[in-house]
Task: structure prediction
Amino acid sequence: MIHSRLGELITTGLTDRLDRRDRMLLKRRAGIKSAGDSPFPLDPRGWWYAVPGETYDGAFEALGLHDGFPVTLDEGADVEDLPFREDAVPVFVTPELDGWRLLFGNLPDLVGLDWDAWMAAVERLSALCGEAQMFFEDGAGGTGLWVVARDGRIRRRCAAQNDVDCSGDPFPWEEHGGTTTVAQACARLSVNPGDIGASTRMRGHGWLALSRPGIGHENLNALVRL
Result:
């Protein structure tokens, strides 16, 4: 499959109908381009999930994501600025970063803004991935939330606005350092997106996935620079 052929597939939204050979070629392309990538700080715009790199496949089912398209870190980083069709919003699953995969982009549309929906999503992720972490930070409102779930149940949760409200047994690093902020918690638990850089171990390629099946990636051709 030559570059022009790939461009046509992306433009016409047929990436959800590719045969096995074409999918392997797309994956190979992303792998080659990712090999030349250097990790850099990410901006999930205040809300992201982290799941183990070895079991991240379960995240697609847990969040109802479809039509995965292999991309590099650079190609997926600005996922919220990408165009989309109807209500098929794109979500980015990063390459493996220090053993973790981050998921972000258009999460209010995907998950909703209801507390129960938030908690249910992180529990589903942990049930299918073994562990899942949710981080939410509203810089303007001064609100922060971090959640750790394992095997389908929330293990620890801390929410902060004027006061800090935590439930579940604290981690040892909390007892020693009193850590409660989102930035401190994600750095301890998995990966701080803002601290990703040259020392971060990156493996594999990322994925762009959609919140509806059978839609494809029409009008997302600007994402892939061949």
Summary: The chain has one domain: 39-213. The helical segments are 3-12, 20-35, 58-63, 73-76, 107-111, 115-129, 172-177, 182-189. Residues 39-213 form one domain. The CA atoms of residues 8 and 221 lie 8 Å apart.
